[in-house]
Design brief:
Number of domains: 2
CATH class of the largest domain: Mainly Alpha
Structural class: mainly alpha
CATH superfamily of the largest domain: MetI-like
Order of helices and strands: HHHHHHHHHHH
Number of helices: 11
CATH architecture of the largest domain: Orthogonal Bundle
Number of strands: 0
Helix content: over 70%
Radius of gyration: 26 Å
Length: about 300
Amino acid sequence: MTTEAVLYDEPGPKARRRIRIWTIVAGAAIVALLVVAVRRLAERDQFSMEKWGPLISPANEDFASVWRVIGEGLGNTIRAAVLAMLLSVVIGTIIAIGRLSLGRTGRIPLVGLVEFLRGVPVVVTIYFTSRVLPDFVETSGWIGGEQLWFLVIGLTLYNSVIFAEIVRAGVLSLPSGQREAALAIGLTNAQTMRSVLLPQAFRIMLPAIISQLVVVLKDTSLIAVVGNYEELVGAGERLYIILGNPIQMFTVIAVIYIAINYTLGRFAQFLEHRLSRSSKSAAVRVEQEATTAGA
């Protein structure tokens, strides 16, 4: 019995007919809803150039200033996401190394920290950071503004443990012979981790790490709940209040997010394909060399 047969039964003629019927019904319902939505929007003058002009018409007097504000918001979003990503990778790698290096008793605090932060919503970590951190540290003079760092630290608290699990999974997926061979040639545990295991783990998990950037990028909008850091969504909110076009403004903001996240997702897929192809090529070369040596 094949794996496909166990996981999925090929539908028969009646099942295929029912699937086609319900697909047509669902498609017709979706089209009908779209038609109703478009008509309602048209009745409320939501397709007029008065509302879309500042976003799509360079001839509009507000076009340049609107896109300048959107560009500043996008820059703030990318800045916060990059900082949170870098800090999360560094701290997550340290946590992963600690979990892999310490004994069963010694890693209990790290396990507890990982499970706690994984279970807390990101918005809670951002809110907690913005309310508690100023009571212990003077944040008013921080470069980029305290709101930026409230967002970055809140995102880092959550994503660092996610990256820790990604890196740990990458190390554990390596053959045990990698560690044994490194120790056999005289490397210490720390040298084995740093020079042998981590480089391979990062190479394996790099697509997953890049994909996680999509999550970090979207989560930057959560600062709107607790602060006034004007990232992309915050910039859109300020603009639609002035222009009175929330549907149009957030449609454009959504398209920007989709374009960035789709590009990141495609890049992760390309990188995964490229790395797997490189690994297969390396394996073929090793096999050929072994065959030649044996001959």
